[in-house]
Design brief:
alpha+beta; two-stranded antiparallel sheet
Length: about 140
Amino acid sequence: MSLFSSLSVSASGMAAQRTRAELLTENLANAETTRTPDGGPYRRKDVVFQSQADSSPFSSVFASAMNGTPGGVSVSDIVVDQRDPERHYDPGHPDAGPDGFVALPRINPAEEMVNLMGASRGYQANVASMSAVKDMIQRSIDLLR
């Protein structure tokens, strides 16, 4: 794998983790949302990653020198949780039904925070990888002087 392909792989990973982090923060922000424009409580969203073929301009140049094609990651789908919402008894709530129960999103803030930390660590790992590749390219240029 060429150094430039490594940069493309890391960039795709950073973009995918950014999308994941955006959805996780949206989930946290709407953990108590009982009414949406679609009706009913907010539904938790999550990303599905898939590997992708490298589409950088450098990949075609170096493709013949590599055993396999370098890849990356992309967001293939955003999945919306279809489970029934949690029901809590709160007859004074404006969105309570005639039985006094309120439908709340099925979101665990602690789990969402752990997932957000994982997305952050994944993003940081890709930044570190890009930094290492940048240093390797710089040292190669220095050697050729």
